[in-house]
Structures are given as structure tokens and as C-alpha cells.
């Protein structure tokens, strides 16, 4: 058959269109549509080991320890070998090292606001949420939804949430600046306990402020009272955020693993970590079967210098030693599942998480 120039051109054009469409397709699916970041504050390798022994009788048994991609992560800040949660959270949220106590501002540097993963998601039309067991304005969630010179400016952090970044979901305890009045004035529905959260219509609600305690939520070990578990907050947040066809970004923090570490209290430390693992399971149950979702489980730093000495079996707290009431410079574990998770391998730095979430080149 004789191919005329016209036919040839049309064929080439069709081929080019197929190529272009295919390339566009690769580009549009090259980064995850949904991102769920779960941060165990102060959760090092030994904290994970101890919690697995208590929950299931053996190390390596928590929900996220089966994830296919795992790495060790360095955590130093711009100012200190041992980071705090502000600089640690900022490095994860923005890909930039800052001084301890800084919330997503270029210090050292020109003091400009550093774009966070939450803002990156919002620019792409996605719904966003912050969930924690600490005050919602505490350092780790703040690093994703605020820009402040000091982590201790909790009232200013609350104002950043309510008037600047406005995540659809804000679940945690409350401190200065985050009250039913300020949240309602900013257009948020306010809920204050687990029954109210369970009764909420997650399909119609648009912006929710969960104000579940004055200060931090209680420790799991001490009983939560009317406050919801981290896993329940995670499930509710996902039901709300997944109404958005453009996708979601959710940061979930097991924030009091760190506090129990500062106290060198293994009972509280283990039970907080076990509940954190339940929250990961909730996220995984939501994501499994999807090809467009990235889950990263990680920590901002280790707290307490924990060392597990002896497994005492399921339901028993292992025998341990602690070396400090503060943070350590130990590398922390990272676990990844889903889209882009294959970049999590070997030894990475906390500033690489931003790129792993946002990279588009396969
Ligand atoms: Zn701490």
C-alpha cells in the first residue's frame, strides 16, 4: 500500500498525540494524589521494638513494620546536633534545616516563610488535615500549618491556622489562641469530645476544629476520658478529607510518645506507641488497594535514649533502660508504603521527605 504524505503526517501526528498523552499521564501520576504522614514524636528504633513486644509478644510486629520500604533517617537541625520537634518538623514539612524552636521560617536565612507539604497540597486543590494528641498548636503540627519565629508562640500559631493556612481538619488539644469562639469565627465547626466526633456527618462538614482537651490529650495509659483515641481521630479525618476529588494531605502525630520519653516512663511510652500503630493501621486500611497514595511513618527524633533489655512477652512491659530525660541524635526509623515509597531506602536525611512526597520523575 502506498502511503501518501498526508496519511504519513496524520499517522505521525496520532503517534505524537499518543506519546504526549502518555507523557502527561506519567507526569500526572508521578506524584502521589493522597499523602498520609504519620509522625511518632520521639519514637526511635527501641520505642518501636518495646511496643511490638508489649502488643504482640515480639519485636518487629507493629502495623507499619511490614511496610515494603524502610530507612534510617538523620535528624540534626541547623543549630544543634540534637534537634527539637520544631526544627525536626520543619525539616520534614519543608525540606529545609532551621534552628531549634523555629516553625517553618528560614532561620538561619532571610526569615521568609518556607512552603510546607500542607501548603504544597493546598496549591494543588487538595484538602488537608492535622491530627495530634498534643495541643494542636504544638511544634510538630505547627511546622506544617504555621510560620512563626518561635514554637512557643502558640496563639500566633493558632492564628496562622485559622486565618492563613486553614486546614479542613484540626484535631487535638487546645492552648492559647484556639478556642471555640476563635474557631467558630473562622468558619470552623467545633467538636469537643469523642461522642460529638462520632455523631458528626463527615460527608457534609467542611472545616472542623476538634478541641478534645485543655492542653494535651491524656496519656493512653491513664485513660482518655471523653477524648477520642488517635486512631479514631485519624479515621474521622480521612472520612472528611476523602470527599475531595483532588486528593488529600493528612499529618497524624503520636505526640505524647515524646512526653513519656522525657519522663522515662515505659508504660506510657509503649501504650502511646501502640495507639500510634493503630492509627497507622487505620490509614493503611483506607489506602490499601489504591495506587495513588503514599503513606510515610516516621519520627522527628528519639527521646530518652531508650534501650530494650528484655522481652517479657505480650501484655507485659519489657525491661528497659533510659540514658537521658531529653532527646538524642540517634537516627530514627522511616517506613514507606505506596506511590513514591521506593525512594525510602538506606540512610536518608529528614530534609529528603519533602522531595520524596513531591518528586514527579519516576
Ligand atoms: Zn521532646
Rg result: 22 Å
CATH architecture designation? 3-Layer(aba) Sandwich
Q: Which fold does the CATH topology refer to?
A: Alkaline Phosphatase, subunit A
Alpha-carbon distance between the two ends: 40 Å
By secondary-structure content and strand pairing, the structural class works out as: alpha/beta
The total strand number stands at 13
Q: Which spans have pLDDT < 50 for at least 5 consecutive residues?
A: 1-28
Q: Beta-strand level of the residues, as a percent range?
A: 15-25%
Description:
The protein is an alpha/beta fold and 362 residues long. The protein has one domain: Alkaline Phosphatase, subunit A (3-Layer(aba) Sandwich), CATH 3.40.720.10. 36% of the residues lie in helices and 22% in strands. The strands form two sheets. Strands 1, 2, 3, 4, 5, 6, 7, 8, 11, 12 and 13 form an eleven-stranded mixed sheet that branches. Strands 9-10 form a two-stranded antiparallel ribbon. Helix 2 crosses helix 11, helix 3 runs parallel beside helix 5 and helix 9 runs parallel beside helix 11. It is globular and about 50 Å long. The N terminus is likely disordered. Bound molecules: zinc ion. Zinc ion (ZN) binds next to helix 10.
Amino acid at each position: 500500500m502506498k502511503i501518501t504524505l498526508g496519511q504519513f503526517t496524520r499517522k505521525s501526528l496520532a503517534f505524537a498525540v499518543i506519546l504526549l498523552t502518555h507523557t502527561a499521564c506519567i507526569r500526572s501520576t508521578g506524584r502521589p494524589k493522597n499523602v498520609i504522614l504519620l509522625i511518632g514524636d520521639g519514637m526511635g528504633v527501641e520505642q518501636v521494638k518495646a511496643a511490638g513486644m508489649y502488643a504482640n509478644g515480639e519485636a518487629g510486629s507493629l502495623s507499619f513494620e511490614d511496610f515494603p520500604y524502610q530507612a534510617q533517617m538523620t535528624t540534626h537541625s541547623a543549630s544543634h546536633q540534637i534537634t527539637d520537634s520544631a526544627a525536626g518538623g520543619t525539616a520534614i514539612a519543608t525540606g529545609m534545616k532551621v534552628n531549634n524552636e523555629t516553625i517553618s521560617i528560614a532561620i538561619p536565612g532571610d526569615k521568609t516563610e518556607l512552603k510546607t507539604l500542607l501548603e504544597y497540597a493546598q496549591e494543588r486543590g487538595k484538602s488537608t488535615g492535622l491530627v495530634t494528641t498534643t495541643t494542636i498548636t504544638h511544634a510538630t503540627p505547627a511546622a506544617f500549618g504555621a510560620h512563626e519565629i518561635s514554637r512557643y508562640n502558640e496563639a500566633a500559631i493558632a492564628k496562622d491556622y485559622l486565618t492563613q493556612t486553614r486546614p479542613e481538619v484540626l484535631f487535638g488539644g487546645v492552648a492559647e489562641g484556639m478556642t471555640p469562639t476563635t474557631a467558630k469565627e473562622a468558619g470552623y465547626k467545633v467538636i469537643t469530645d469523642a461522642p460529638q466526633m462520632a455523631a458528626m456527618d463527615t460527608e457534609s462538614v467542611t472545616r472542623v476544629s476538634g478541641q478534645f482537651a485543655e492542653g494535651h490529650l491524656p496519656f493512653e495509659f491513664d485513660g482518655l476520658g471523653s477524648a477520642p483515641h488517635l486512631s479514631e481521630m485519624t479515621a474521622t479525618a480521612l472520612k472528611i478529607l476523602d470527599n475531595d476529588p483532588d486528593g488529600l494531605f493528612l499529618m497524624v502525630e503520636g505526640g505524647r510518645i515524646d512526653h513519656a520519653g522525657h519522663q522515662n516512663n515505659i508504660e506510657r511510652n509503649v501504650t502511646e506507641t501502640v495507639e500510634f500503630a493503630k492509627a497507622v493501621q487505620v490509614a493503611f486500611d483506607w489506602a490499601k488497594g489504591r495506587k495513588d497514595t503514599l503513606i510515610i511513618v516516621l519520627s522527628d527524633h528519639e527521646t530518652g535514649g531508650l534501650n530494650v533489655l528484655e522481652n517479657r512477652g505480650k501484655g507485659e512491659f519489657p525491661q528497659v533502660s533510659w540514658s537521658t530525660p531529653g532527646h538524642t541524635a540517634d537516627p530514627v526509623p522511616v517506613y514507606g508504603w505506596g506511590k513514591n515509597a521506593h525512594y525510602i531506602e538506606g540512610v536518608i536525611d529528614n530534609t529528603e521527605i519533602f522531595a520524596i512526597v513531591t518528586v514527579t520523575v519516576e
